[in-house]
Each structure stands twice: as structure tokens, then as C-alpha cells.
Design goal:
mainly beta; five-stranded mixed beta barrel; 114 residues; globular; Inorganic Pyrophosphatase
Length: 114
């Protein structure tokens, strides 16, 4: 695993490039949540670090929230951060349910509070 654990518990600003309700450009599925990236970062896949935004129920262009977990993909190089509003928490089961639309294609573990 890379060093994404340093983000857990921190407040981060995420740029949303796939807002809730938008369609994936290659695979055609609809994003049921906002999805974006941390600007000026690099993940193991060579791209900026991707983030799922939970607890926001409308499309947004940018979001400032707290990182509560990492989805560490075991069979892929593209781990994801879980970002939520400051006063929210989500169980592992809730994180799995809300990200299942995309994560069902990967084997992963959820990492919290390292």
C-alpha cells in the first residue's frame, strides 16, 4: 500500500470531475455520488488521488471535507479516499454499499484510523 494513510483524519479539498448523476465517459454507468481527485497529488497509478464523496446529496464542483477511510484495492493500483462532511461518519458496510457501483469490479479492503 502507498502512503495514503497520512490523509486519514485530515480535512481536504476535492475537485469533482464526475459529479453525482454524470455518466462515466468510457463505461457508461451513472455516478450515484460525487467523485473527484486531490489536486497536485500522485497515486500509484500515476494519476491524481481519487476520492469518493459521501454524505453530499447534490452535484458539486468542489468539496471540502474529512478523510475517514481508504479503499485499498488489492488487485489494482488505484486506491481511493473516502471524504465526508466534518460531522459525518460511515461504517465499513455503508462505505461498501455506497461505492459498490464501481468497487464491485475490484478486490479491496477498507482502511480506517491508522
Amino acid at each position: 500500500m502507498n502512503n495514503l494513510s497520512e490523509y486519514i483524519g485530515k480535512e481536504l479539498t476535492v475537485i469533482i470531475d464526475r459529479p453525482m448523476g454524470s455518466k462515466h465517459p468510457e463505461y457508461g454507468f451513472i455516478y450515484p455520488i460525487n467523485y473527484g481527485f486531490l489536486p497536485n497529488t500522485i497515486n500509484k497509478d500515476g494519476e491524481e488521488i481519487d476520492c469518493y464523496i459521501l454524505g453530499v446529496f447534490e452535484p458539486v464542483k468542489e468539496f471540502n471535507g474529512k478523510c475517514i477511510a481508504i479503499i485499498h484495492r488489492i488487485n489494482d493500483e488505484d486506491d481511493k479516499l473516502i471524504i465526508v462532511p466534518e460531522d459525518k461518519e460511515y461504517s465499513n458496510d455503508a462505505i461498501r454499499a455506497l461505492t459498490e457501483f464501481q468497487e464491485r469490479f475490484f478486490k479491496s479492503i477498507i482502511i480506517k484510523n491508522i
